Amino acid sequence: MTGIRLHAPRPGWSVDADVVVVGSGVAGLTVALRCAAAGAKVTVVTKALLDDGSTRWAQGGIAAALGEGDTPEQHLDDTLVAGAGLCDEEAVRALVTEGPDAVRRLIATGARFDTDADTGAVLLTREGGHHRRRIAHAGGDATGAEISRALVEAVRAAGIETIEHALVLDLLKDADGRAAGVTLHVMGEGERDGVGAVRARAVVLATGGMGQVFSATTNPAVSTGDGVALALRAGAEVSDLEFVQFHPTVLWLGPDAEGQQPLVSEAVRGEGAHLVDANGHRFMVGAHELAELAPRDIVAKGIMRRMQELGAPHMYLDARHFGARMWEQRFPTILAACRAHGIDPVTEPIPVAPAAHYASGGVRTDLAGRSSVPGLYACGEVACTGVHGANRLASNSLLEGLVFAERIAADVTEVLREAGAPPRPAATGTDTGAGTVLAGPKARLEIQRIMSEGAGVLRSRESLDRAAAELARIDDDAAAALEAPGTESWEATNLLLVARVLVAAALRREETRGCHWREDAPDRDDAWRRHLLVTLRPDRTLAVSTTETAAFPPAAAPTPHPPTNGAHPRSTT
Ligand code: SIN
Known about the structure:
Residues 18-398 form the FAD-dependent oxidoreductase 2 FAD-binding domain. With 573 residues, this protein is an alpha/beta fold.
């Protein structure tokens, strides 16, 4: 087996499957359901419980051209504008044209969206960057929880094997370098304790994001970039990691707030809430034609600018005019979260500030979800399909998870039909002696501080250089300390790797575009209308190259095999 791996014990147990899906959000569970329906033996591996991933925290909803008068073409236009010149148009076209039917299939699977009491039509709201009402929601502001409930129920009903509380470690490969399964560590008691392996012909990463690389994020504690780090160690390309979306309106809980912070959905602005400063001034009016509903990067920048002008730690979201009834019916989750922190949105404006929310980049895939490593797929936030460009359009992520999950399932099914005997991993992939050095558990907080200070909403060469140097020091310390394997050190090591890549890419991109804001290069530069691709060399240094254009390689879906997307246009810089 080639590639770099985490320092970990040798697997003590193994199971076989046709497909192993790592992650249990909308992307992972949809892949699992579709592959199982096609007759594949599927194993789902998830880090906490089946319904504990990022999907269940999604509030606003799922965007699709479902409304009267709306068209995929209009959805495409809004997505391209938000993506600030870096979307892969073919990927976006797949998203918006296949999206409406994918949502209908989700409804057929059991997800109950909010509907009009008289007509039964799905109710649609607005969010930033959308020129019309296009966002389907459930339980008012509990869309992700409802989608998660429906998919978990369907997975259980289908009898799909699941392994919970399992941190994925590394990719197994066969003698030809094709993915042959994963190693993982299961926390708990029982037959499958400790490090084991799932051997499979296809590996689908659906591990979600990496928000925990920053101090304050809307992401749950499990979002430590495990999928991107695994893919890098396995030799796969990652792209666009510099484009971290900061959600403009996250409940501000004080200057030292750490970890997952409560989101105040953009749908609150979609229903008419105003962003104001401490003087009640609506600072987004006049700043953009869509005011508070401008694309997310523009609103986040507007908030940051006003905070800087006034020397204020946060701004306010004012939706007192909704009244108690609307708050209770339309936004019960947000109302409860605010009240739990002593703020009553019915009678007072909500203090808000931007926090890390979504990784627009990730493991580079083609339109069938195939990474540059044969047999390794990526889906959902962990992937970079080219759909989001430099800034994801609000509520496109659940849709991306759905649409590309179906594309992956179609491709995997075809691969399985053609395949002979299951591949045997060339090696177990882990042993006690040869893995990469591990960062210690304490590194997590340090990495978060470094990234928040140096690579947050506002960046500059100076702040990024500082961050790069501090991360390098943590890496050196890890080499000297010889940390023991364990969940906390594996997670910290993953965070360190994705942080290094993010900073390297942010340093290289000397312009301001989408959610990448360089104070020292404040303009968009068309010479940078291309993607940065990063791989990990065997000596763990980073190789950074660029594509020629904003387009990723031609669509490969639905076949042929094996994947060819390592051959896309690029130039090394
Ligand atoms: C929100 O509800 O504001 C978040 C939606 C999203 O991130 O797409």
